[in-house]
Hints:
mainly alpha; 46% helix
Amino acid sequence: xxxxxxxxxxxxxxxxxxxxxxxxxxxxxxxxxxxxxxxxxxxxxxxxxxxxxxxxxxxxxxxxxxxxxxxxxxxxxxxxxxxxxxxxxxxxxxxxx
Length: 97
């Protein structure tokens, strides 16, 4: 697997982090930037789940090796943090692939 150009997984945060938190951040590190830029906050949970394509029938994200489930609310919250992180990198470091 090719390593991502991002390192959101290790970006400092004031939030308490557990294994699942780090796994979700790593999941977003590997998400294609073009796909991530398609995200719209106005989407319903069903639209979000369809767009991502990796949610289970119980409406939680399929995130292997995690100790707890990630629902749409947590997914959205961390996704917005990741989008802000990528934006900061673009502004501060020029072009990031």
